[in-house]
Structures are given as C-alpha cells and as structure tokens.
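Exercise 7.
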Amino acid sequence: LAGRAFTIKELFVANRPAKAAPERSLVTVVSPFPVKAGDAVFKVSSETAFTMSENACLKRLEAAPAAKLPCDLSFAMAGESLEITAGVAGLSFTRAFALGSLEPARTPDMAAVLLAQFGRTGDTPFTLASLAAPGFPALLIPPARLKELRREFYRELAERVLPELRRERKARTDRALASLTLKKSPPARVRPETVVRVEQLRDWHLLSQEGVGVLALPVSRANVHQLPLLAKKLRGREERVIWRLPFIIFEEDIPFYREALTAIVSYGFRRFEAANLSHFPLLRQNEVQGIRLDISTDYRLFSLNSQALLTWGELGATAATLYLEDDAENLALLLAEDLPIVKRVLVYGGVPVITSKIAIRGVRSDAPVVSDRGDAYRVTVRDGLTVVTPERRFSITHERGRLQEMGCSSFVIDLAGLSPQEWPRVLDAFAHGREIPGTSPFNFTMGLV
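Solution. The predicted structure, written as tokens, is:
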C-alpha cells in the first residue's frame, strides 16, 4: 500500500532557507498535506539520482574498492633461498626465491624490514594481516630485489589462490542450494496453459479463442461497474478468469478495493493475482464462510530463487510468475525445482520502468517521449499514477519450445497497451514459437546482472 509523496521545494536549516544540507543535519521542509508525530517519512529520490547518467553510475561502481583478503605471511631462509609461506582463507601457498650470497645487515630486526616492503599490498587483492620471521638471519637484501620479490609473490599468490577460492565458493553455493529443494525428473509433456492479460472486461470473448486458457483482468472501477452486466456471459467459466490487483494501492482507495473484491467473489470468481505483499491480507479478508481463494503472484513480487517461491506458497499462493528480467540459466534452475507451486513465465508484454505518484512536468498522458539516446517511451497518467513504459516491448515468444523443455507449462502474454488489431499477431507468434520483430528479450539471453 502506498503513502503520499511530494517534491521538496523549500528547505530550512536552523530556521534559515538553504539549498542543501550536510548528512545528518536537522532540517525543516514544507509538506503540502498534514502529517502527525510518528508518521514515517522516506526520501525516495534526489537530484543526484536523476542527473547521474548510466555511465557515471557504472564508473562510480567500478571505482569502489573491492574487499581484500587478509593474508598471513611467514618468512624463512633455506640456504641461499628465501621461503615465503602465505595463508589465505584456509589455503596455504609457499614460494622459494634464490637470493645468492648476501652480506650481513646492520639491523637485526629483519621482521621490520620485511614488513615495510610486504605490507605494501597496493592494488593486489590482499591485505597483510600478520607477518612472522622467527629466527630470520640479519641479511642485507637489496631493496630493489625485495620489491621485485614482493610483486612476483603477490602475483603468483593471486594466480594460485583466487581460482581455488572461487571453486570452493561455487561448491559451497551449489551444496547449499541443493540442500534447500529437490530437483524433479525431466517434465512430462503437458498441454501448456496460456494466461492472457487484457485491460477491459468487455474483452471476455477472448476466452473463446483457441490458445487462450485464462483471462487476467485488472480490478478497476470500469470492470467492477460492468461486472453485473457481463457476469452472466462468464457463468461456468469463472475458473478461467484471474483478477489482478494493481501494483500500488493508495490508502484512500483501500475501501473501494475491499468492496470490489467482495463483489467479485460474490459472482463466483475465486482466482486473484497479488502484485504487492499487502495484497495477501487484503485478499484473505474475503475468505469467509468456507470460501477459499486461489492466489497467484505477479512478477513484481520478485521470484528469482526457490526460497522466494516457497515464501509465496507459505503466504497462500498456488502459482507465481517468475521475474521477467531473469536469464535462461536461472529460469532453468527454478523450473527444475520440485516445489508445490505452479511457475509461470511472462513471454510478452510492456514493462514499466517508472511507476510514480509524482507527475512528470511538461509531459502529457499517452504522449511519446524520446531519451537522449533515442529510446522512445510512452507516459501514461491514470488513477493518480504516472507510468513510463518503453515503446520497445519485452518478448521471448520464440523461446517457447526451449521454455517447455525446461519444464514450463504456464505462460503469460500481456496484451495491455496494444490495440486489439495487434493481438492476433502476438498470439500467433507465441502459438508457433516465432520471434516478434522490434522486441527485446531483456536478460534472457544476455545473462542476469
């Protein structure tokens, strides 16, 4: 459920107008609506967030220093060779370097000499945690040679240790994942279920079209208004309709949705889709007098691993739409998991990049917008929300066969935002496993970032 948002236009520090304030400052802002003590206030965006380009964000991430591995070093002389032993994350590595004949050093504290050089780990993936040189003889090792040894040793240490650590980490991850759920045997061939999303109840006739198994409709004022007139036409097919709650519900609209859900249930419909955690208790309020609702989840309730799917099942969901920005490898793993929940895959649809209560200045509803990179977007303002959607739609209709081989038997086709004249083209492309020109597969083939 959503709160109320506003843009800060005036900022005061110590009762004086200010353009900015340092972190942890006590500031005063002007709210366009009343608030009371105890209300939670969140900063959801900033000028920096909107003005930084994608490349600038990537450069900042790349510049962030990576965590270094603590390294314990031990030094010893074996004849005319220097032996260095490193201990890193439970792994040991020893390397000997020939030094030849050396003169005695004036300083007896060789541990300090070695520490001054090997403590400089620089851009290596290590940080020196400890250094020991018990019984090390006082020898004059040329500083240039010692510097050369340091560089060569840390380079070889990285080449030897890092791949092994990666293998161990992957093995631990694989064992942990394998212990969470069971893999099921290769799926048997079953007739796939196709869930088609549209916006208007008046499009109920799609249920008569071949290849359309289920119709998913939004719980909207228009559809609830038309329900008394069209419920008779859907009699006997209530199980083939899923009612979708909107991703964001404002507090003042909660009474409407409570009444709407009660009305829909009274007409015999039992299947609903949640797109927000708060939808579960909202739906459960209608489970009275023996009525049990069949709840599925939208992709906005992220389902990227087996534990998320198990959580939706614990909350009462019988089906879940996997996340549309997932890749083929991870989808295959999820579809192979033996879980008590139906896993759906969205194969076509428009994907909002922004859903906000804050209007975009100077942009009209349903007017196209072009970014500085030439990407076209459509802005829709409806029910108090501004939604920005790329003109280029997501589609993996051509991967239908591959998805079925992975074990998927339930697919979602989102026709919202398309004219009815375009629907047959999309449905036919999915039916025959064809690619739709001008669409994008997102991360399906590129890999999950």
